[in-house]
Amino acid sequence: MSDIVITGVTVFKVRLPVVSERRQGSGITKDAVTNIFVKLDTDAGIVGWGEAATSATFPGGTEAHMAALHIYFRPLVMGADPFRIEQIMEQAERAVVHGAEAKAGLEMALFDIVGKALGTPVCNLLGGAYRDEIPLSFSIANPDLGADVEMAKRLYDDGLRIFKVKTGAAGHAEDLRRLETLRAELAPDVDLRVDYNQALDVFDAIPKLRDVEAFRPTFIEQPVNIDRIDAMAEITRALDTPIMADESAFSPADALAIARLRAADIISIKVMKGGMLNVRRISAVAQAAGIPCYGGDMAESGLGHLAGTHVIAATPNISLGCEFYQATYYLKEDILAAPFPVVNGKVQVPTTPGLGIDVDEDKLAKYTIERLT
Known about the structure:
This protein has 373 residues and is α/β, with parallel strands linked by helices. The chain has helices at residues 62-77, 85-95, 100-118, 122-125, 145-157, 172-185, 205-213, 229-238, 252-261, 276-288, 302-313, 326-330, 361-367, and strands at 6-17, 22-24, 27-29, 32-42, 47-53, 133-135, 137-140, 162-166, 191-195, 220-221, 243-245, 266-269, 293-295, 318-322, 342-343, 346-348, 368-372. The chain contains 13 helices and 17 strands.
C-alpha cells in the first residue's frame, strides 16, 4: 500500500470545436466533439487526469458516462489508495455494466497519479517501453474530398505516410470515386487503409469489398455490424486484403471469439474499450492467436492520446501504428499544457512522469459546459 489517498473527484463535460465535418458509417461529427474529463486530487498534492471520449453510437452517450463517474465511481475512489488500480477497476466493473469509456477515464487518472508519485512514465508501469515512437495515421472523412486531399498532401510533407479512408456513409460509387482520387493524387508510398464502421449490409458486402481491393488497401476495418462476426469470418476468408475488427472487439472474450472463428486478421485496440489494462488483455488474446493489433481512437483529445501512446509503447503486439491525430490536426485547440508529441509523422512516447503532459486548466475551463464535484 502507498501512503497516498484520493481526496477529490471532479468531472467535466467538455465541448471541443473541430476544424471540419466528418462522416463515417456510424455517424457524423460536426462542429465539436463532447468528451468527459476526470480530475483526481490526492492528499499528497498529486493530481491525476483522465478522459472518456464518448459517443452515442458506441456503448453509451456522454450523460451515461458522466453519471458513472460522478455517482457510481466517486464512492469507490474517495479515500482510496490510487496504487490499487486493479482492485479499484474490479470494483468499477461490478458497479456499472458497460461504461467502457468512463472506466478508461478513471483508470487513466489512477495511472497518472501513480506514475507521478513514482517519478516514472506510465509505460514503465506496464512493463517498459518496447518502442519509442509510433507511426501516425490520419483519417480521411471530410465530405469535401478536395479539402481532405489537400490536408493529406500537407501531412505527407509533415512525414505522415498512413491515411485511413472512412467509407460507407455516401454510397458505394462515391466510396470508389474517393479511393480512386486518393490513389491518383497521393504519393505512391502512401499506406492507404479503409474503415466502414459497420456500414455494409451483409448480403452484398463481399462484392463491394472486392471492388475496394482494387485500390490496394493495407486493411479493411469493420465492414459489417458489430454482432455479425460470423459474416466477418466469411469476409476474412473471401478477401485477399486483411480484415480488421474494431467495434466487434471490446473485451478479451470478444477477441477470443474472433480468434476462434478467425473472423479478422487484425484487431483494433482502443483505450476507450475499458482502459489500458483491458486492452492489454485483448492484445494478449490476439497475440496468442497470431493476430496483430492497431492503435485506434474514439475522438480523444491529447490526454486520451497520451494513454494510448503509453499502452502501445509497452505492448509489442500493437504493431500497426496509431491514429492519434485529433489533438494535432483535428481539434481547433487541444487542452494539454504542451503540444501532443508528433515528430516527422510519428508519435513520440513521453519520458516524463505519469501520462507525460498535464491538462491546461485554463483551456479546460474555456471549453467546459458542465462541472460536477
